[in-house]
Amino acid sequence: MFNTLLIQPLANGLVVFYKLLFSDMGLAIIGFSVFLRYALNPLTKPYMESMKKMKDIAPSLDKLKKKYKDDKVKLTKAQADLYKSKGINPGAGCLPYLLQIVVLIAFFNMFNKTLSSENPTVAFNSLLYNPLRFPDGEIINTGFLGMDMTKPAVFQIPGIDFNIPGPLLILSALAQFVSAKIMAPYEKVQEKIAKKTPEASDDFQVGMQKSMIYMFPLMTLFIGLRFPSGLALYWLVFSVFQAYQQYRSQGWGGMTPWIIKLGLLKSESNTKDVKKN
Questions:
Q1: Angle in degrees, CA 64, 69, 75, rounded to 5
Q2: What's the first-to-final CA gap in the chain, in angstroms?
Q3: DSSP letters along 65-93, please?
Q4: Which of 253, 140, 262 lies closest to 186 in space, CA to CA?
Q5: pLDDT tens column, 122-152
Q6: 184-202 residue pLDDT tens
């Protein structure tokens, strides 16, 4: 079922882009990653809108927590009523992460069955629909900017028994970190709210968001050490476009303090971004 619903469609979609983009697997992965990012918009857009609304009602939530600080039942009901009146679903925050995990697992399996195979052409043909299958003997071009998309993006240093993450893997992990950081609410505001309430749910949410920020980059580094660099390229492109969309939707989010420290928010337009957060 997983193979039919996810792995096969992903393999066919990737080959469509391969044939459109000059028979170059690197360009195909970039093009298909951008396409997937925008194709998933209808599923992730509600989360982005929900996050923006959560920021807008933060002062109201703070007032409720002060008003009902000694009555958790009334506080929970008042929060639920506020969310309902504003059309907010607090649970929507998990959806982008779940989507990333499901698509990543499917991509991992697809690359593992095709690019990691001794004969990628035969392996791809076993997953492709008839019109997209490669002719017998055709060799798939898996080179891209001096890398081989079928090999891990790692360095091997003489005298050291383990592999070192290469530039593509490091960039991919960094993009994943920035994406998750922008996706998180402005930390100072969130922590301030959490400290003012006796309820543990906010502290749990802050902790969950923080763990996601570091978990995905670490997963990228560890998984990428063993599997085709095509997976790292997909994750890099997907994360960059996700970060861009998130920034367009609600500003710098959790990256705001970092951007301020770097002195990148001096212009009038950037100051507006700070105010958004």
A1: 50
A2: 42
A3: HHHTTT-HHHHHHHHHHHHHHHT--GGGG
A4: 253
A5: 999 999 999 999 998 899 999 999 899 988 8
A6: 766 555 555 555 544 444 5
